[in-house]
Amino acid sequence: PQRLALTLRSPGPWLVALTFAVYSSQWLAVVGFLPTVYAQLGLSAGVAGVLSACVALANVSGNILSGRLLQRGWLPQRLLWMGFAGMALGAMGAYAVWQGEGLPMSLRFVCVVMFSAVGGLIPGTLFSCALRLAPSEGTVSTTVGYMQQWSAFGQFAGPPLVAWVAAGVGGWQWTWVVAVTLCAVGAMLAARVGRALQGLEKAHV
Fold first, then answer.
1. What pTM, to 2 d.p., does this model score?
2. What pLDDT does 151 receive?
3. For residues 11 and 170, what is the distance between their CA atoms, to the nearest angstrom?
4. Is pLDDT above 90 for 195?
5. DSSP code string of 161-198
6. Greatest CA separation for the chain
7. Nearest to 198 by CA among 81, 83, 21, 78
8. CA 20, 112, 121 angle in degrees (round to 5)?
9. DSSP characters over 37-105
């Protein structure tokens, strides 16, 4: 109870937890509905399943790359911004419609892969930040656990939000608005994470 109380009173765990929620909510919303979107575009269930699996697999590459870049001295804030920017652009390319038409199917797929792959920079970076922003060595587990709980909340809340928007407008063409809005929130949280990490570095100096 004492470690949990210390975790909840500290701003660092809240920052990484909310940032993870913003990421997970849109990632699962976009990727989770891909089979449905592909089916509406006329693709078979088998092809839709393979394409969706490829998009999910692309996310792994971003997670691995984030670790390598952090080891090379890249700033976490920069990686988070890159992740949210890639997700925003990917969602726009995949779902936005201009004058009744979107991008060709092949380019839409590339955009969704970019959405997942570049967005994969975010989870690995946040796990690293959670270790540093935990209020004490004894609260690392509670900080990481709290972040995972908010990740689960994002996965729970994101898909219904996107489905509600799609049902309201009669299609998936405004899904990108939800994603871009969440990415903007994520970028602001990333800036707060960066300032918190800088504060720790100055305190240690």
1. 0.92
2. 96
3. 40
4. yes
5. HHHHHHHHHTSSTTHHHHHHHHHHHHHHHHHHHHHHHH
6. 60
7. 78
8. 35
9. HHHHTT--HHHHHHHHHHHHHHHHHHHHHHHHHHHTT--HHHHHHHHHHHHHHHHHHHH--BTTB---H
Neighbouring residues of 64: CB distance < 8 A, sequence distance ≥ 6: 120, 124
**CA distances (Å), origin 145, targets 20, 141, 188:** 12, 6, 23
> Which of 199, 201, 183, 198 lies closest to 81 in space, CA to CA?
183
The answer to whether the beta carbons of residues 133 and 197 sit under 8 Å apart is: yes
Could you identify the residue written with the tokens 């089979």? 35
**Rounded CA separation 134/16 (Å):** 10
| pLDDT, tens only, 150-161 | 999 999 999 999
DSSP 136: S
The CA radius of gyration of the chain, in Å to the nearest whole number, is: 18
Dist CA 194 CA 51 (whole Å): 35
Residue 162: the pLDDT is 92
Residue 27 and residue 60 in contact, taking contact as beta carbons nearer than 8 Å: no
Q: Which two tokens mark 73?
A: 């001295």
